[in-house]
Amino acid sequence: MPEAKAPKLFLGVHARLVFLKEEDKRAVLDLMRRFSGAIRYALCTRQNLHRA
User: What does the DSSP assignment read for 1-52?
Assistant: First the structure.
């Protein structure tokens, strides 16, 4: 009997964003940049913990 695979922990989403106001666009891009940085930091920290 085959073993069950672990579920995926992250699911990516693709969307085209259309903004009516430039300030909304800047706010969303800032949030996306911060989230991306947080993910990179978490992955790097996790990898460094496994090396120790």
Answer: -PPPPPPPS----------SSHHHHHHHHHHHHHHHHHHHHHHHHHHHHHH-
- Of 45 and 22, the structure prediction assigns the larger pLDDT to 22
Count CB-CB contacts under 10 A for residue 25.
13
Predicted pLDDT at 52: 63
pLDDT band, very low/low/confident/very high, at 4 (cuts 50, 70, 90): confident
Rounded to 5 degrees, φ, ψ at 42 are -65, -45
Confidence (pLDDT) at 1: 58
Q: What is the CB neighbour count within 10 angstroms for residue 32?
A: 11
